[in-house]
Amino acid sequence: MFWQEEIETIDSKNLEKLQLERLQKTVRCVYENVPFYRDKFKDKSLKPDDIKTLQDIRKLPFTTRDDLRLNYPYGLLAVPKNGGVVRLHTSSGTTGKPKAIFFSKNDVNQSAELIARCLVMTGVKSDDILQNMMTYGLFTGALVMHYGAEKVGILVIPAGPGNTERQIALMQDFSSTCLHLTPSYALYLSEVMESKGIMPKRDLSLRRAYLGAEPYSEETRKKLEQMLGIDIYNSYGLSEMNGPGVAFECINKDGMHIWEDNFIVEILDQETGEPVTEGQQGELVLTTLCREGMPFLRYRTKDIAKIIPGKCRCGRTHKRISRILGRVDDMFIVRGVNIFPQQIERVLMSIKGVAQNYQIHLEAYDKMLVKVEIEQDFFDGNIEHLLILKSKITEKLKSEILITPKVELLEPSTLPMSEGKTQRVIDRRTL
Amino acid sequence: MKIKQISVFLENKRGRLLEATESLAKAGINIRALSIADTSEFGILRLIVPESEKAKEVLENSNFTVRENDVIAVGVSDSPGGLASILRILNDAGINVEYAYAFVQKSGEKAVVVLRIEDPETGIKALREKGVMLLSSLDVQQL
Protein backbone atom coordinates (compact mmCIF):
# COMPACT_ATOMS: atom_id res chain seq x y z
CA MET A 1 0.00 0.00 0.00
CA PHE A 2 1.20 3.44 -0.92
CA TRP A 3 0.23 6.99 -0.04
CA GLN A 4 1.93 8.57 -3.05
CA GLU A 5 2.83 5.57 -5.18
CA GLU A 6 4.33 7.45 -8.10
CA ILE A 7 6.88 9.33 -6.04
CA GLU A 8 7.54 6.47 -3.62
CA THR A 9 8.48 4.13 -6.47
CA ILE A 10 10.18 6.69 -8.73
CA ASP A 11 13.10 5.29 -10.77
CA SER A 12 16.61 6.47 -10.04
CA LYS A 13 16.95 8.54 -13.21
CA ASN A 14 13.85 10.57 -12.52
CA LEU A 15 14.67 10.80 -8.83
CA GLU A 16 18.10 12.24 -9.56
CA LYS A 17 16.62 14.71 -12.01
CA LEU A 18 14.10 15.81 -9.41
CA GLN A 19 16.75 16.01 -6.70
CA LEU A 20 19.03 18.18 -8.85
CA GLU A 21 16.23 20.59 -9.74
CA ARG A 22 15.23 20.90 -6.11
CA LEU A 23 18.81 21.19 -4.88
CA GLN A 24 19.53 24.00 -7.33
CA LYS A 25 16.35 25.77 -6.26
CA THR A 26 17.24 25.38 -2.58
CA VAL A 27 20.79 26.62 -3.13
CA ARG A 28 19.55 29.68 -4.99
CA CYS A 29 16.96 30.33 -2.29
CA VAL A 30 19.40 30.30 0.62
CA TYR A 31 21.99 32.28 -1.33
CA GLU A 32 19.47 35.00 -2.00
CA ASN A 33 17.67 35.03 1.34
CA VAL A 34 19.95 33.81 4.14
CA PRO A 35 22.99 36.01 4.88
CA PHE A 36 24.61 33.14 6.81
CA TYR A 37 24.74 31.00 3.66
CA ARG A 38 25.65 33.89 1.35
CA ASP A 39 28.70 34.59 3.54
CA LYS A 40 29.69 30.91 3.49
CA PHE A 41 29.38 30.85 -0.33
CA LYS A 42 31.54 33.96 -0.55
CA ASP A 43 34.19 32.34 1.69
CA LYS A 44 34.34 29.44 -0.75
CA SER A 45 34.01 31.68 -3.83
CA LEU A 46 30.97 29.64 -4.70
CA LYS A 47 27.98 30.73 -6.79
CA PRO A 48 24.63 28.90 -7.02
CA ASP A 49 25.33 28.28 -10.71
CA ASP A 50 28.38 26.18 -9.74
CA ILE A 51 26.00 23.43 -8.65
CA LYS A 52 25.53 21.62 -11.94
CA THR A 53 25.29 17.98 -10.86
CA LEU A 54 24.27 16.14 -7.72
CA GLN A 55 27.93 15.39 -7.03
CA ASP A 56 28.51 19.12 -6.73
CA ILE A 57 26.75 18.93 -3.37
CA ARG A 58 30.21 18.30 -1.95
CA LYS A 59 31.18 21.86 -2.80
CA LEU A 60 28.45 23.19 -0.52
CA PRO A 61 29.15 24.31 3.03
CA PHE A 62 28.02 22.27 6.03
CA THR A 63 25.43 23.45 8.52
CA THR A 64 25.99 22.50 12.15
CA ARG A 65 24.03 22.69 15.34
CA ASP A 66 26.30 25.49 16.46
CA ASP A 67 25.30 27.46 13.36
CA LEU A 68 21.69 27.11 14.47
CA ARG A 69 22.52 28.32 17.95
CA LEU A 70 24.64 31.23 16.73
CA ASN A 71 21.88 32.36 14.42
CA TYR A 72 19.14 31.89 17.00
CA PRO A 73 16.33 32.79 16.74
CA TYR A 74 15.58 34.11 13.25
CA GLY A 75 18.97 34.13 11.53
CA LEU A 76 18.44 31.17 9.23
CA LEU A 77 14.96 32.04 8.01
CA ALA A 78 14.61 32.10 4.23
CA VAL A 79 11.19 33.73 4.32
CA PRO A 80 9.87 36.78 6.21
CA LYS A 81 9.04 35.91 9.79
CA ASN A 82 5.75 37.77 9.48
CA GLY A 83 3.54 35.99 7.01
CA GLY A 84 6.17 33.52 5.89
CA VAL A 85 6.13 31.06 8.77
CA VAL A 86 3.25 29.64 10.76
CA ARG A 87 4.83 27.43 13.38
CA LEU A 88 7.81 27.36 15.73
CA HIS A 89 9.41 24.28 17.19
CA THR A 90 12.56 24.16 19.26
CA SER A 91 15.01 21.45 19.94
CA SER A 92 16.65 21.51 23.31
CA GLY A 93 20.36 21.44 23.55
CA THR A 94 22.33 20.13 26.48
CA THR A 95 24.13 23.44 26.68
CA GLY A 96 23.15 26.99 25.89
CA LYS A 97 20.34 28.18 23.68
CA PRO A 98 17.87 25.80 22.06
CA LYS A 99 17.60 25.56 18.29
CA ALA A 100 14.62 27.35 16.76
CA ILE A 101 12.98 25.69 13.76
CA PHE A 102 10.28 27.44 11.75
CA PHE A 103 7.71 25.89 9.46
CA SER A 104 5.95 27.65 6.59
CA LYS A 105 2.40 26.59 5.70
CA ASN A 106 3.80 24.31 3.02
CA ASP A 107 6.39 22.88 5.43
CA VAL A 108 3.60 21.89 7.83
CA ASN A 109 1.77 20.25 4.96
CA GLN A 110 4.83 18.56 3.50
CA SER A 111 5.93 17.08 6.84
CA ALA A 112 2.41 15.69 7.26
CA GLU A 113 2.55 14.19 3.75
CA LEU A 114 5.77 12.38 4.66
CA ILE A 115 4.22 10.99 7.84
CA ALA A 116 1.21 9.85 5.81
CA ARG A 117 3.56 7.94 3.49
CA CYS A 118 5.22 6.38 6.54
CA LEU A 119 2.01 5.28 8.23
CA VAL A 120 0.48 3.80 5.09
CA MET A 121 3.79 2.06 4.42
CA THR A 122 3.37 0.10 7.68
CA GLY A 123 -0.15 -0.97 6.77
CA VAL A 124 -2.24 1.72 8.44
CA LYS A 125 -5.86 1.67 7.24
CA SER A 126 -8.89 3.79 8.02
CA ASP A 127 -9.88 1.60 10.99
CA ASP A 128 -6.63 2.30 12.80
CA ILE A 129 -6.48 4.52 15.89
CA LEU A 130 -3.23 6.20 16.82
CA GLN A 131 -2.41 6.94 20.45
CA ASN A 132 0.26 9.58 20.24
CA MET A 133 2.39 9.37 23.38
CA MET A 134 5.11 11.83 22.42
CA THR A 135 5.35 15.25 24.03
CA TYR A 136 3.05 17.86 22.51
CA GLY A 137 4.56 21.29 22.50
CA LEU A 138 7.82 22.75 21.34
CA PHE A 139 9.14 19.27 20.53
CA THR A 140 8.27 18.24 16.94
CA GLY A 141 7.65 14.58 17.74
CA ALA A 142 3.98 14.65 18.61
CA LEU A 143 2.55 17.45 16.45
CA VAL A 144 4.12 16.39 13.17
CA MET A 145 2.91 12.81 13.69
CA HIS A 146 -0.49 14.13 14.68
CA TYR A 147 -0.92 16.15 11.48
CA GLY A 148 0.32 13.25 9.36
CA ALA A 149 -2.10 10.78 10.92
CA GLU A 150 -4.97 13.21 10.44
CA LYS A 151 -3.96 13.52 6.81
CA VAL A 152 -4.28 9.76 6.44
CA GLY A 153 -7.72 10.20 7.99
CA ILE A 154 -7.40 8.05 11.10
CA LEU A 155 -8.45 8.91 14.64
CA VAL A 156 -5.64 10.38 16.71
CA ILE A 157 -5.64 10.36 20.51
CA PRO A 158 -3.32 13.19 21.59
CA ALA A 159 -2.36 11.48 24.84
CA GLY A 160 1.11 12.93 25.27
CA PRO A 161 3.59 11.06 27.45
CA GLY A 162 3.33 9.98 31.07
CA ASN A 163 0.44 9.00 33.34
CA THR A 164 0.82 5.40 32.35
CA GLU A 165 -2.36 4.19 33.99
CA ARG A 166 -4.39 6.68 32.00
CA GLN A 167 -2.56 5.61 28.83
CA ILE A 168 -3.61 2.03 29.43
CA ALA A 169 -7.19 3.14 30.17
CA LEU A 170 -7.25 5.06 26.86
CA MET A 171 -6.04 1.96 25.04
CA GLN A 172 -8.80 -0.05 26.66
CA ASP A 173 -11.60 2.50 26.21
CA PHE A 174 -10.85 3.56 22.63
CA SER A 175 -9.20 0.39 21.27
CA SER A 176 -6.02 2.13 20.13
CA THR A 177 -4.25 0.10 17.46
CA CYS A 178 -1.07 2.16 16.97
CA LEU A 179 1.25 3.80 19.47
CA HIS A 180 3.84 6.48 18.90
CA LEU A 181 6.38 6.77 21.72
CA THR A 182 10.01 6.66 22.76
CA PRO A 183 11.75 3.30 23.26
CA SER A 184 12.40 3.98 26.93
CA TYR A 185 8.76 4.80 27.55
CA ALA A 186 7.75 1.68 25.64
CA LEU A 187 9.89 -0.38 28.01
CA TYR A 188 8.39 1.33 31.00
CA LEU A 189 4.87 0.87 29.65
CA SER A 190 5.38 -2.83 29.04
CA GLU A 191 6.70 -3.25 32.58
CA VAL A 192 3.71 -1.47 34.04
CA MET A 193 1.37 -3.62 31.96
CA GLU A 194 3.10 -6.74 33.15
CA SER A 195 2.90 -5.71 36.80
CA LYS A 196 -0.82 -4.97 36.42
CA GLY A 197 -1.47 -8.32 34.79
CA ILE A 198 -2.50 -6.75 31.48
CA MET A 199 -1.77 -8.99 28.53
CA PRO A 200 -1.73 -6.72 25.47
CA LYS A 201 -2.65 -9.54 23.09
CA ARG A 202 -5.64 -10.56 25.17
CA ASP A 203 -6.77 -7.27 26.68
CA LEU A 204 -5.91 -4.60 24.10
CA SER A 205 -6.31 -4.01 20.37
CA LEU A 206 -2.74 -2.94 19.65
CA ARG A 207 -1.24 -3.81 16.27
CA ARG A 208 1.87 -1.72 15.98
CA ALA A 209 4.03 0.93 17.59
CA TYR A 210 6.31 3.57 16.15
CA LEU A 211 9.44 4.15 18.15
CA GLY A 212 11.61 7.17 17.70
CA ALA A 213 13.50 10.07 19.27
CA GLU A 214 16.08 7.85 20.98
CA PRO A 215 18.45 5.25 19.59
CA TYR A 216 17.78 1.70 20.72
CA SER A 217 18.84 -1.75 19.65
CA GLU A 218 17.35 -4.49 17.49
CA GLU A 219 17.34 -6.75 20.56
CA THR A 220 15.22 -4.24 22.45
CA ARG A 221 12.80 -4.13 19.54
CA LYS A 222 12.46 -7.92 19.57
CA LYS A 223 11.96 -7.94 23.32
CA LEU A 224 9.27 -5.25 23.12
CA GLU A 225 7.53 -6.90 20.18
CA GLN A 226 7.32 -10.06 22.21
CA MET A 227 6.18 -8.38 25.40
CA LEU A 228 3.55 -6.25 23.69
CA GLY A 229 2.64 -8.76 21.00
CA ILE A 230 2.80 -6.15 18.23
CA ASP A 231 4.95 -4.99 15.31
CA ILE A 232 7.39 -2.25 16.11
CA TYR A 233 8.64 0.12 13.43
CA ASN A 234 11.60 2.43 13.64
CA SER A 235 11.00 6.07 12.98
CA TYR A 236 13.79 8.53 12.35
CA GLY A 237 13.55 12.25 12.43
CA LEU A 238 14.97 15.35 13.98
CA SER A 239 13.46 18.74 14.57
CA GLU A 240 15.98 20.34 12.23
CA MET A 241 14.52 18.20 9.41
CA ASN A 242 10.79 18.65 10.23
CA GLY A 243 10.72 16.08 13.04
CA PRO A 244 9.57 12.48 12.59
CA GLY A 245 9.00 10.98 9.16
CA VAL A 246 12.40 11.73 7.63
CA ALA A 247 13.02 7.99 7.40
CA PHE A 248 10.73 5.16 8.42
CA GLU A 249 10.54 1.41 8.19
CA CYS A 250 8.17 -0.39 5.85
CA ILE A 251 6.62 -3.75 6.77
CA ASN A 252 9.88 -5.52 5.94
CA LYS A 253 11.58 -3.85 8.95
CA ASP A 254 14.90 -3.95 7.19
CA GLY A 255 16.14 -0.39 7.34
CA MET A 256 14.29 2.92 7.13
CA HIS A 257 13.33 4.41 3.78
CA ILE A 258 14.56 7.97 3.69
CA TRP A 259 12.43 10.20 1.49
CA GLU A 260 14.96 11.18 -1.11
CA ASP A 261 12.63 13.52 -2.96
CA ASN A 262 12.71 15.61 0.22
CA PHE A 263 16.24 15.02 1.49
CA ILE A 264 19.63 14.30 -0.01
CA VAL A 265 21.45 11.77 2.17
CA GLU A 266 25.19 11.64 2.64
CA ILE A 267 27.04 9.33 5.00
CA LEU A 268 30.33 10.96 5.89
CA ASP A 269 33.34 10.05 7.93
CA GLN A 270 32.78 12.06 11.08
CA GLU A 271 36.40 13.08 11.36
CA THR A 272 37.29 13.92 7.75
CA GLY A 273 33.88 14.90 6.37
CA GLU A 274 34.59 12.68 3.34
CA PRO A 275 32.00 10.15 2.10
CA VAL A 276 32.40 6.61 3.41
CA THR A 277 32.19 3.59 1.11
CA GLU A 278 28.55 2.65 0.62
CA GLY A 279 27.44 0.33 3.40
CA GLN A 280 29.97 1.67 5.90
CA GLN A 281 28.80 3.62 8.90
CA GLY A 282 29.34 7.31 9.33
CA GLU A 283 27.62 10.55 10.21
CA LEU A 284 24.30 11.13 8.52
CA VAL A 285 24.32 14.48 6.70
CA LEU A 286 21.07 15.77 5.23
CA THR A 287 20.14 18.51 2.80
CA THR A 288 16.52 19.62 2.63
CA LEU A 289 14.97 19.79 -0.84
CA CYS A 290 11.44 20.97 -0.15
CA ARG A 291 11.85 23.11 2.94
CA GLU A 292 10.70 26.73 2.52
CA GLY A 293 10.91 28.36 5.93
CA MET A 294 14.33 27.11 6.93
CA PRO A 295 16.16 25.18 4.25
CA PHE A 296 19.42 23.54 5.38
CA LEU A 297 22.40 22.56 3.29
CA ARG A 298 24.37 19.52 4.43
CA TYR A 299 23.14 19.51 8.01
CA ARG A 300 25.39 17.42 10.23
CA THR A 301 22.94 15.37 12.27
CA LYS A 302 25.60 13.83 14.54
CA ASP A 303 23.68 10.57 14.14
CA ILE A 304 25.67 7.52 13.09
CA ALA A 305 24.08 5.25 10.49
CA LYS A 306 24.82 3.40 7.30
CA ILE A 307 23.09 2.87 3.98
CA ILE A 308 21.58 -0.56 3.49
CA PRO A 309 22.52 -1.60 -0.03
CA GLY A 310 20.09 -3.20 -2.46
CA LYS A 311 16.41 -2.85 -3.32
CA CYS A 312 13.61 -3.28 -0.83
CA ARG A 313 10.93 -5.87 -1.49
CA CYS A 314 8.20 -3.33 -0.80
CA GLY A 315 8.84 -1.66 -4.15
CA ARG A 316 9.87 1.71 -2.77
CA THR A 317 13.00 3.00 -4.45
CA HIS A 318 14.05 5.44 -1.76
CA LYS A 319 17.30 4.42 -0.07
CA ARG A 320 17.23 2.71 3.28
CA ILE A 321 19.32 3.74 6.24
CA SER A 322 20.13 1.48 9.16
CA ARG A 323 18.75 2.20 12.58
CA ILE A 324 20.73 4.93 14.31
CA LEU A 325 23.83 3.16 15.58
CA GLY A 326 24.76 5.94 17.94
CA ARG A 327 25.18 9.66 18.26
CA VAL A 328 28.52 11.27 17.78
CA ASP A 329 27.91 13.00 21.12
CA ASP A 330 26.99 9.83 23.03
CA MET A 331 30.20 8.12 22.18
CA PHE A 332 32.55 7.75 25.10
CA ILE A 333 36.10 6.60 25.25
CA VAL A 334 37.47 4.10 27.75
CA ARG A 335 41.12 3.19 27.56
CA GLY A 336 41.31 4.55 24.06
CA VAL A 337 38.37 2.53 22.77
CA ASN A 338 35.40 4.34 21.20
CA ILE A 339 32.19 2.95 22.64
CA PHE A 340 28.54 3.71 21.93
CA PRO A 341 25.91 2.89 24.58
CA GLN A 342 23.97 1.05 21.87
CA GLN A 343 26.75 -1.52 21.59
CA ILE A 344 26.38 -2.30 25.27
CA GLU A 345 22.62 -2.46 24.97
CA ARG A 346 22.77 -4.83 22.01
CA VAL A 347 24.91 -7.25 23.98
CA LEU A 348 22.84 -7.05 27.16
CA MET A 349 19.51 -7.54 25.44
CA SER A 350 20.76 -10.68 23.72
CA ILE A 351 21.45 -12.41 27.05
CA LYS A 352 18.69 -14.40 28.73
CA GLY A 353 18.11 -13.37 32.32
CA VAL A 354 18.82 -9.68 31.73
CA ALA A 355 15.94 -7.24 32.24
CA GLN A 356 15.48 -4.11 30.10
CA ASN A 357 17.21 -1.60 32.27
CA TYR A 358 20.92 -0.95 32.55
CA GLN A 359 23.35 1.85 33.33
CA ILE A 360 26.93 2.49 32.38
CA HIS A 361 29.11 4.17 34.99
CA LEU A 362 32.46 5.59 34.06
CA GLU A 363 34.63 5.94 37.09
CA ALA A 364 38.10 7.10 37.95
CA TYR A 365 41.12 5.63 36.19
CA ASP A 366 39.10 4.73 33.11
CA LYS A 367 37.15 2.01 34.85
CA MET A 368 33.82 1.04 33.44
CA LEU A 369 31.00 -0.39 35.50
CA VAL A 370 27.90 -1.81 33.87
CA LYS A 371 24.90 -2.13 36.17
CA VAL A 372 22.41 -4.68 34.91
CA GLU A 373 19.00 -5.59 36.30
CA ILE A 374 18.23 -9.28 36.34
CA GLU A 375 14.88 -10.66 35.27
CA GLN A 376 12.49 -11.58 38.07
CA ASP A 377 11.99 -15.10 36.77
CA PHE A 378 15.68 -15.69 36.30
CA PHE A 379 16.36 -15.74 40.03
CA ASP A 380 16.02 -19.29 41.31
CA GLY A 381 17.89 -18.95 44.59
CA ASN A 382 21.02 -20.49 43.13
CA ILE A 383 24.11 -18.34 43.52
CA GLU A 384 25.94 -20.29 40.85
CA HIS A 385 23.44 -19.24 38.19
CA LEU A 386 23.92 -15.59 39.07
CA LEU A 387 27.69 -15.89 38.92
CA ILE A 388 27.47 -17.60 35.54
CA LEU A 389 25.19 -14.84 34.26
CA LYS A 390 27.61 -12.24 35.50
CA SER A 391 30.60 -13.80 33.80
CA LYS A 392 28.60 -14.35 30.61
CA ILE A 393 27.74 -10.63 30.51
CA THR A 394 31.35 -9.70 31.19
CA GLU A 395 32.67 -12.01 28.48
CA LYS A 396 30.17 -10.94 25.84
CA LEU A 397 30.76 -7.27 26.55
CA LYS A 398 34.48 -7.82 26.36
CA SER A 399 34.23 -9.38 22.92
CA GLU A 400 32.10 -6.45 21.71
CA ILE A 401 34.00 -3.49 23.17
CA LEU A 402 37.42 -5.09 23.67
CA ILE A 403 37.80 -3.98 27.26
CA THR A 404 36.65 -5.85 30.34
CA PRO A 405 34.00 -3.97 32.25
CA LYS A 406 33.02 -4.62 35.82
CA VAL A 407 29.49 -6.00 35.89
CA GLU A 408 27.11 -5.56 38.78
CA LEU A 409 23.84 -7.45 38.98
CA LEU A 410 20.89 -5.51 40.35
CA GLU A 411 17.43 -6.42 41.54
CA PRO A 412 14.72 -5.91 38.92
CA SER A 413 13.20 -2.41 38.65
CA THR A 414 15.75 -0.66 40.83
CA LEU A 415 17.29 1.66 38.25
CA PRO A 416 15.32 4.83 37.63
CA MET A 417 12.87 4.29 34.76
CA SER A 418 11.91 7.48 33.07
CA GLU A 419 8.79 8.34 31.16
CA GLY A 420 10.92 10.30 28.74
CA LYS A 421 14.52 9.97 27.72
CA THR A 422 16.74 7.88 29.96
CA GLN A 423 20.28 8.62 31.03
CA ARG A 424 22.28 5.52 30.22
CA VAL A 425 25.80 6.77 30.78
CA ILE A 426 26.96 8.35 34.01
CA ASP A 427 30.42 9.77 33.61
CA ARG A 428 32.09 10.58 36.90
CA ARG A 429 35.58 10.78 35.53
CA THR A 430 37.53 13.91 36.15
CA LEU A 431 39.96 13.99 33.28
CA MET B 1 10.54 -34.64 54.16
CA LYS B 2 11.19 -31.35 52.49
CA ILE B 3 10.55 -27.93 53.95
CA LYS B 4 10.32 -24.52 52.29
CA GLN B 5 13.14 -22.07 52.29
CA ILE B 6 12.88 -18.48 51.07
CA SER B 7 15.75 -17.07 48.97
CA VAL B 8 16.00 -13.32 48.45
CA PHE B 9 18.27 -11.68 45.90
CA LEU B 10 20.03 -8.71 47.47
CA GLU B 11 21.95 -6.24 45.37
CA ASN B 12 24.91 -4.51 46.89
CA LYS B 13 23.12 -1.52 48.34
CA ARG B 14 23.31 -0.09 51.80
CA GLY B 15 20.40 -1.06 54.01
CA ARG B 16 18.94 -3.68 51.69
CA LEU B 17 19.20 -6.50 54.27
CA LEU B 18 17.74 -4.22 56.88
CA GLU B 19 14.79 -3.42 54.61
CA ALA B 20 14.15 -7.12 54.02
CA THR B 21 14.18 -8.01 57.69
CA GLU B 22 12.13 -4.96 58.64
CA SER B 23 9.37 -5.81 56.22
CA LEU B 24 9.19 -9.29 57.75
CA ALA B 25 9.14 -7.79 61.23
CA LYS B 26 6.26 -5.51 60.32
CA ALA B 27 4.29 -8.51 59.12
CA GLY B 28 4.99 -10.28 62.41
CA ILE B 29 7.04 -13.03 60.78
CA ASN B 30 9.63 -14.59 63.03
CA ILE B 31 12.79 -15.80 61.34
CA ARG B 32 13.68 -19.32 62.50
CA ALA B 33 17.00 -19.63 60.68
CA LEU B 34 18.95 -17.64 58.16
CA SER B 35 22.11 -17.60 56.15
CA ILE B 36 23.59 -15.10 53.75
CA ALA B 37 25.57 -16.20 50.74
CA ASP B 38 27.52 -13.27 49.44
CA THR B 39 29.79 -12.31 46.59
CA SER B 40 31.51 -8.97 46.28
CA GLU B 41 28.53 -7.44 44.42
CA PHE B 42 25.40 -9.21 45.53
CA GLY B 43 24.11 -11.67 48.04
CA ILE B 44 21.37 -14.17 48.63
CA LEU B 45 19.52 -14.19 51.91
CA ARG B 46 18.12 -17.58 52.80
CA LEU B 47 15.41 -17.86 55.41
CA ILE B 48 13.44 -20.50 57.21
CA VAL B 49 10.21 -19.00 58.50
CA PRO B 50 7.02 -20.54 59.89
CA GLU B 51 4.80 -19.23 57.06
CA SER B 52 6.89 -19.17 53.92
CA GLU B 53 4.00 -18.29 51.57
CA LYS B 54 3.17 -15.22 53.60
CA ALA B 55 6.83 -14.23 53.91
CA LYS B 56 7.26 -14.50 50.14
CA GLU B 57 4.25 -12.29 49.56
CA VAL B 58 5.40 -9.71 52.11
CA LEU B 59 8.86 -9.51 50.55
CA GLU B 60 7.53 -9.34 47.01
CA ASN B 61 5.20 -6.53 48.00
CA SER B 62 8.28 -4.68 49.21
CA ASN B 63 9.81 -5.16 45.74
CA PHE B 64 12.21 -7.94 46.61
CA THR B 65 13.07 -10.70 44.19
CA VAL B 66 12.14 -13.89 45.96
CA ARG B 67 12.16 -17.60 45.26
CA GLU B 68 10.89 -20.52 47.30
CA ASN B 69 13.11 -23.61 47.32
CA ASP B 70 12.90 -27.03 48.92
CA VAL B 71 15.49 -27.91 51.52
CA ILE B 72 15.68 -30.51 54.24
CA ALA B 73 16.07 -29.81 57.94
CA VAL B 74 17.70 -32.40 60.13
CA GLY B 75 17.87 -32.61 63.88
CA VAL B 76 21.32 -33.58 65.11
CA SER B 77 22.69 -33.97 68.60
CA ASP B 78 24.26 -30.77 69.86
CA SER B 79 27.61 -32.40 70.57
CA PRO B 80 30.94 -32.94 68.75
CA GLY B 81 30.46 -35.02 65.61
CA GLY B 82 26.74 -34.28 65.33
CA LEU B 83 26.92 -32.69 61.89
CA ALA B 84 29.69 -34.97 60.70
CA SER B 85 27.53 -38.05 61.24
CA ILE B 86 24.85 -36.61 58.93
CA LEU B 87 27.32 -35.61 56.25
CA ARG B 88 28.88 -39.08 56.41
CA ILE B 89 25.52 -40.66 55.55
CA LEU B 90 25.01 -38.34 52.58
CA ASN B 91 28.59 -38.82 51.43
CA ASP B 92 28.24 -42.60 51.52
CA ALA B 93 25.04 -42.31 49.51
CA GLY B 94 26.96 -40.26 46.90
CA ILE B 95 24.94 -37.11 47.45
CA ASN B 96 26.52 -33.64 47.22
CA VAL B 97 25.57 -30.84 49.55
CA GLU B 98 25.08 -27.49 47.78
CA TYR B 99 25.04 -25.54 50.99
CA ALA B 100 24.10 -25.92 54.63
CA TYR B 101 23.52 -23.79 57.68
CA ALA B 102 22.72 -24.66 61.24
CA PHE B 103 21.09 -23.26 64.35
CA VAL B 104 20.71 -24.45 67.89
CA GLN B 105 17.30 -24.90 69.43
CA LYS B 106 16.37 -23.17 72.65
CA SER B 107 16.34 -26.39 74.61
CA GLY B 108 19.98 -26.86 73.67
CA GLU B 109 19.67 -30.59 73.20
CA LYS B 110 19.36 -30.66 69.48
CA ALA B 111 20.84 -28.56 66.72
CA VAL B 112 18.96 -28.14 63.45
CA VAL B 113 20.86 -28.27 60.18
CA VAL B 114 19.28 -26.95 56.99
CA LEU B 115 20.67 -28.68 53.93
CA ARG B 116 20.24 -28.10 50.24
CA ILE B 117 21.28 -31.32 48.59
CA GLU B 118 21.35 -32.84 45.15
CA ASP B 119 18.78 -35.56 44.64
CA PRO B 120 16.76 -34.90 47.81
CA GLU B 121 14.62 -38.07 47.40
CA THR B 122 17.59 -40.40 47.68
CA GLY B 123 19.14 -38.26 50.40
CA ILE B 124 16.00 -38.32 52.52
CA LYS B 125 15.76 -42.10 52.10
CA ALA B 126 19.38 -42.61 53.14
CA LEU B 127 18.98 -40.40 56.20
CA ARG B 128 15.75 -42.12 57.23
CA GLU B 129 17.32 -45.55 56.95
CA LYS B 130 19.96 -44.46 59.43
CA GLY B 131 17.31 -43.23 61.83
CA VAL B 132 18.02 -39.51 61.38
CA MET B 133 15.25 -37.18 62.47
CA LEU B 134 13.94 -35.02 59.62
CA LEU B 135 11.88 -31.98 60.49
CA SER B 136 8.50 -31.37 58.84
CA SER B 137 7.01 -27.98 58.04
CA LEU B 138 4.90 -28.42 61.14
CA ASP B 139 8.03 -28.96 63.24
CA VAL B 140 9.50 -25.80 61.75
CA GLN B 141 6.42 -23.81 62.72
CA GLN B 142 6.83 -24.93 66.31
CA LEU B 143 10.54 -24.20 66.57
Task: Offer a concise description of the structure.
Chain A contains 13 helices and 20 strands.
Structure description:
The complex is a heterodimer of chains A (431) and B (143). With 431 residues, chain A is of the alpha/beta class. Chain A folds into 2 domains: 1-329, Rossmann fold (3-Layer(aba) Sandwich), CATH 3.40.50.12780; 332-427, ANL, C-terminal domain (GMP Synthetase, Chain A, domain 3, 2-Layer Sandwich). Chain A is built from 13 helices and 20 strands. In chain A, the strands form 4 sheets. In chain A, strands 3, 4, 5, 6, 7, 8, 9, 10, 11, 12, 13 and 14 form a 12-stranded mixed β-sheet that branches. A 4-stranded mixed β-sheet of chain A has the order 19-18-17-20, with helices on one face. In chain A, a hairpin with a 6-residue loop joins β8 and β9 (256-258). Chain B has 143 residues and is α+β, with helices and mostly antiparallel strands. Chain B folds into 2 domains: 3-68, VC0802-like; 71-142, VC0802-like, CATH 3.30.2130. Chain B has helices spanning 16-26, 52-61, 82-92, 120-129, 137-142, and strands spanning 3-11, 33-38, 42-48, 65-77, 97-104, 110-117, 133-134. In chain B, strands 1, 2, 3, 4, 5, 6 and 7 form a 7-stranded antiparallel β-sheet that branches. In chain B, β2 (33-38) and β3 form a beta hairpin. The longest helix of chain B is centred in the first third of the chain and has 11 residues, at 16-26. The relative contact order of chain B is 0.21. Classes of the chains: A alpha/beta (431), B alpha+beta (143). The A-B interface holds A 374, 376, 379-383, 386-387, 390, 407-414 and B 5, 7, 9-13, 37, 39, 41-42, 44, 46, 63-69, 98.
